Amino acid sequence: MHIRTTAVRLTALVLAAGLVTASCGSGGGTNANQDGLGDPGDCTVIDMAVSSEKIDLMTALAKSFNGSDDAKLGDGCAFVRPFSKASGGATELLATGWPETGEGERPVIWSPAASSWGQILNQRLADDGQSALVGDAVSFQLTPLVIAMPKPMADALGYPAKPVGWADIAKLSTSKEGWAAYGHPEWGAFKLGKTNPNFSTSGLSALIGQTYAAAGKTRGLSQEDLDNPKVTAFAKNVESSVVHYGDITMNFLNNWFRTDRDGTSLLYASAVAVEEKSVIDYNKGNPDGILKPGETPRKPRVPLVAIYPKEGTLYSDSPLYVLNADWVTATEEKAAKQFIDFVQRPSAQKKVLEYGFRPGNPDVTIGAPISKANGVDPDQPSTLLQVPAPPVLLSMLQKWREQRKGARVLLVLDVSGSMKEAADPKNPSGPTKLDLAKKAAIEALGEFKSDDQVGLRIFTTGLGSNQDADFQDLLKVQPMSANREGLASKIRDQFPQNATPLYAVTGDAFGDMVTQYDPTKINAVVLLTDGKNDDGDSSDDRQQLTSLLEKLRRGTDGENAKSVRVFPIAYGSDADLNTLTEIAEATNAAAYDASNPATITKVFTAVVSNF
To answer: I want to staple 565 with a disulfide (CB 3.0 to 4.6 A). Which of 248, 413, 515, 589 is the partner?
Structure first.
């Protein structure tokens, strides 16, 4: 089966947002995944940018291809070199010429998660009066969007004997009884995880699916459908149960897997919109789909079940594009086509199956691991949805910005003395780390809607009239509608000062947000710091951290505390990413890596994608 997706024209925001892949643990978009490929020697090198979920598979196929008879190229040879790059990120880079340094080699082959990204790229280029970079492409592999749910919860709903879809999610999301209506009050309220559709293919597919479900259609979604008050109400109902959004599904899966260890995974999330392949990986004990050297899979105590929405779903089709770019030579184009022919053969497509994808070659029969034993159903999906026309899709995304769950966020900004250091050590007279951080924070404010509530807290030692405070609130948490410019001005006015009381400030910020918790919004702390805890306290640093983590896990206001999340940004090479990751995990959030200060704008935008 070959799935084609309709051309989609997105706003500049969508494309710029897709560039972000800076979450801790995600692919960084360089050639870091080339380990084991060896030296290409005199072969023609074919650099290949692929979406992160298939980097291991593509690397394995490249190893099989390189050095084989299939790689012979006249009197020479071809050498394929895959690297990981998020689909939206590659789209933005290709649309702007792809810099020769810092983002991986300019690719000859591009394989995003879905062919809609290729259509987006061509549309952007056409709008700028440029020629298309991609043409038609075959589907290398397929994986449908599903609603992943812990098996006990799926059983409680009667699935699969009783079909489940977005209408059921909307009903659960607004139920005052929550899981008590299904005999399990101990599971609490229904909690949904979804990625931001401006960043993520799965988030976009989920938005399309729930909108079709609201309209009662499987194709031909129209602007009139989107303007229907019932469709709007349906969307708001679904979004009301979201725990947070985000740029990648990996954050949800890793949090689920970690909480599975202590038996609390059912309290973290009731369902997450992901691709089928992720359910297989999770149930095999590899939630992020990438096994590190020496890592041993550990099956979860509570497996997931892939629910194929009864209203229909969409495939991600992993197209293989040979780029029509000025940096691609005729020889490279020929070599690239040889590799694409190679990976479509049955032997390679069977490898696709091994990695949990459905073969793009219809002559290869679907089999293990796509099986009920791994929580998925090879006979599903029974209904496929049509990707909406570009104007309708654009309107859908614009409406989502107002329909999504609101946010209540405290921005906590490190203004310690080390923030005065040059962002680029090679350019000491250039902007400081604080200069770039302020610019990124101000730009990210545009992602908040008018009724989101945002506040600003700075921290360092020696603040206040008596110079005895560790933090200062420059703007209380309040609606953005009347304070957007004031907040930007407050951020702009900051300057580097003293030490870094990281642990105390984190604990206080978390406690304050718990006290002021709003159950109708996503409650969170965004913490940016460039250093380690340095508060002048002579007591044991690890003991302080242990106390902080216990506070974050236990909270100060019972059940509400579990819904306040801390999203730290490790800024600069001296930031303590490991500790910040522990802080994030204690609140079931995610840490973000901006060890290269030049990436802070991308990273800050990724963090704000959670809201």
So the answer is: 589
DSSP states of 290-348: -PPTT------SS-EEEE--TT-B-EE--B-EE---TT--HHHHHHHHHHHHHHHSHHH
Helix, strand, coil fractions of the chain, as percent rounded to 5:
40, 20, 40
3-state secondary structure of 354: helix
Helix axes 201-215, 229-239, angle to 10 degrees: 140
CB 216 within 8 A of CB 578: no
Domain boundary among 344, 379, 399: 399
Q: Tell me if 375 is assigned to some domain.
A: no
Give yes or no for a contact between 575 and 529, defined as CB atoms under 8 angstroms apart.
yes
DSSP 32-68: GGGTTS---TTSEEEEEEE-GGGHHHHHHHHHHHTTS
Q: Are residue 426 and residue 569 in the same domain, yes or no?
A: yes
Chain position carrying tokens 């440029």 = 130
Query: Does residue 107 belong to any structural domain of this protein?
Result: yes
* DSSP letter string, 230-268: HHHHHHHHHHTTBS---S-THHHHHHHHHHHHTT-HHHH
pTM (whole model) above 0.90: no
Cβ proximity of 566 and 527 under 8 Å? yes
28: tokens are 């960084």
Run of H or E residues at 569: strand 564-571
- Residue 600 CA to residue 595 CA, distance in Å, equals 9
User: In this structure, what DSSP letter does residue 385 have?
Assistant: P
pLDDT tens readout for residues 475-489: 999 999 988 999 999
pLDDT digits (tens, 9 = 90+) for 442-480: 998 988 999 999 999 999 998 977 888 999 999 999 999
- Which residues span the domain enclosing 325? 12-137+319-356
Amino acid (one-letter) located at 302 = V
- Is residue 343 included in any domain, yes or no? yes
